[in-house]
Specification:
275 residues; alpha+beta; Helicase, Ruva Protein, domain 3; 2 domains; four-stranded antiparallel sheet; binds zinc ion
Length: 275
Amino acid sequence: MPELPEVETTRRGIATVMPGRTLRRVLIHEARLRWPIPLDLPQQIQGEKVIACDRRGKYLLIRFVPGTLILHLGMSGSLRRVPMDEALRKHDHVEFLFDDARFLLHDPRRFGAVLWHPANAGPVGDHPLLAHLGAEPFGPDFTPETLHQGLKQHRQAIKQVLLGGHVVVGVGNIYASESLFQAGIDPRTRADRLSRPRCERLYNAVRLTLTQALESGGSTLRDYVNAQGTPGAYFTLHAAVYDHAGDPCPRCATPIRRIVQGQRATYFCPHCQKR
Ligand SMILES: [Zn+2]
């Protein structure tokens, strides 16, 4: 599944091309994504200039004067720049055509989304899909203190609270295991029982883990045009515990354990990570 680092890498890619260009045509080849693509979308944005390419959580926000296009890549989607004359492949559902640039939304499992938020409906951050998202991990609202306060509201295991995205967005399954290992926190610890100093360690670990993923993503997916839908795989290569069940802990050599929390695999060192 594309995680925050992959979505951010895509955003950085499109942000070098789209802003300042006029979107000439939108071709919808398959409207049945997670929600149907609005049929009047082309009328809303054809002929409009892109102002900015932003991101909120795993949603790409392409801003125009009359409103914002909200894109989600779902489980397996990608947004790629392709040559003007390249033939469509199977699962290329939407085309965005500029005078000298062409983008294809490719989504084999069709869990992605293409939605339109008109400017007269208010700030896009108030959209129902965005309004309840947690803090951006690199935004000003995410601090050791806000993490501590946010976690106090949750009694579930810290791993699941991180994955839930209500306190902080972008800490997907791989990054949750890695961050908790870096911070020395047992993934089964109740979120509301984490002390302020441990929250600070977790805060630093989350930011470090996502930064490393972005840096490796930035080089591996440097040309996001060629992002081939194997997100996360590149980061697994550098993971200390994720997908390393039975291997020695890189710090203490205790075998890494795998458990299942909320139907998702969690990896941790039973010696280094404390409750
Ligand atoms: Zn260890």
